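This section describes the prediction task in plain terms. A model, or a person checking by hand, is given the sequence of a single protein chain and must write out its three-dimensional structure as a string of tokens. No templates, partner chains or ligands are provided. The sample shown here is typical of the held-out split.
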Amino acid sequence: MERTPLQPPARSDLEAALATVPSAPLAPRTHERLGDAWSGLQRSQPAAACYRTAMALGGESPLLVRKLARAVELCAGASSAPLADRDHNRCYRMASLATFLTGICGREDFQLLDVGGGDGLLSLYLPHAGYRLAEPDINGLRGEALPFPSGSVDVVCACHVLEHVPPEARFDFLDALRDRAREHLVLLNPFHVPGSGYRERLQTVVDLTGAGWAREHLACGLPETGLIREYAESRGLTFTMEPNGAMPTAFLANLVSHYARKAGCEGDLARINRYLNSLDPAAMTNPRLPAAMLVHFPLV
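The expected answer:
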């Protein structure tokens, strides 16, 4: 008789932990258990984000504090690439976003909900914030069905998320984010820049790397900045918008990462990233060809 291979315990633990989320999405123990499962898979970054979420939701046991400290230590380089050596595009976004959030709040201990935040890398750049992650693949929480109460955090942010939302659902998505925020709604997002040839650029990335994110950008279409103005006017909001990064740098950094990994030159890639990540983010913005825009809706 043919036998079904046994599932690795760590993967089984993660699936079991994710299965508990719908019944108790805001229970600290739910997210601590998710952190344990990611830790068992030796994925220290999502583990740290889940532990941070558990603490922001009220978890305060000494054991949870120790688990978080260990996960952050591993993120810093004990078992993975040091932060400075990691993908430049992601690190640039997180560093500039963290600086912006701290600036508008005027303090470091604000309460934050990071919607669509991937593995929670932003949490490492905001060590004193009450950090909550909503990412379906990491902790089962979805942006279109956020379980957090209205006005439950100081800031809601979404980094490179809006372009993955179908155009007809974008206003509803922004409404959901705004509802959870007391003080600020912040987006860091790529937009269609006239004359930038964004479809040609994205198609090049798809053809050369097969990147799923680029396929989604093409399928949904990059939003235009006019969408933000239309949304603000329809909701009686004010907003600011400022360029972030440089499109050519982001494009080339993505291809350098792809070909360096393909060639097995991860050490060389780490050195390149280390240099790029050492530069002042404020000096790396091209206002005419930005990689993204920082959009801020003040709510108070």
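For orientation: The first strand starts at residue 111 and ends at 115.
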